[in-house]
Amino acid sequence: MASCAQEDSLSYSNEISLTIDNDIFFFIDRYYSAGHEITYRRLLRKEQFLARWFDGGNQSSKWIASFGIGNKIFTPKKVRFVNPINMDRPYAGFVYGSISLSHLKGQSSISSLSLETGLVGEMTGLGQLQAWWHERTGFQEPRGWDSQIANEVIFNMQYQLQKGIKIARQLDLVSTSKLSAGTGSNKISQDFTLRVFKFNPLTRSVFSKSFLVNDDMSNEEFFIFFGGGFDYVLSNIFLEGSLFDNPSPFTVEATTGILRGNVGLMYACNRGSFSLLLNNVGKEMLNGSRHNYMSFVFSHKF
Predict the structure, then answer these.
(1) Is the pTM for the entire model greater than 0.85?
(2) Tell me, which fold does domain 15-301 have in CATH?
(3) Distance in angstroms (rounded) separating the CA atoms of residues 22 and 251
(4) What is the 3-state secondary structure (H, E, C) of 242-279?
């Protein structure tokens, strides 16, 4: 606590974070099987071009630019089968890069616009990587990658709006609304999350990836949270294949409505932060089932 207070006056304008998603902690290997992302964030100074362009360097708001690279692996429930007739969803590998700009206004409002582009299909090499990793670690061999989603370049845009509502001194409610559109995923999402115990305002919190902002209200955080959300899905390339004339060997129809839930804890102090999330996702396709996976996020400011 003392060391946290001692460094509150220091200003850090950069942050790097590592996110790891995996379902191995539930002794399963299916659906959204694994994901990794490295993200760099920078707090823009008032005089920098983007801040001046959008609001003239308004002292009451802040801007954060983010750049990320990552990968995701999707597999069916049973990976021992070669024939797609025995699969409840297709295999898919995705490598991507992203850029986003977030506008932090006051204590409880954040709007973000992001662009994501990447590759799906055999050219990602993720099928070979997963097969090699399973062989090295003794996990069951994933045998159906020959019928994975076809090669394609993906472009997606996302707009996100977060609002915080203070309920009590150690309790608040965060609303997160998202709109995703592009060649990869088209959906509308709404989430509500309760934060409990010791947290900063939304625009200065590890929860919203804005702990990078240092001022008199950016203090140590340690809180648990409980969330739930809903996706209205219009299309999903990782299940249904391309929107264009680029057929995949095997596809399934995506579920229109998906319920999600999560619970976890977050801690931030001085230059570092840590998050642990347990995620539960509803049926994404007709013959599928709910899925659990864990997320770990490690961040460092400099």
Answers:
(1) yes
(2) Lipocalin (2.40.128)
(3) 23
(4) CCCCCCCCCCCCECCEEEEEEEEEEEEECCEEEEEEEE
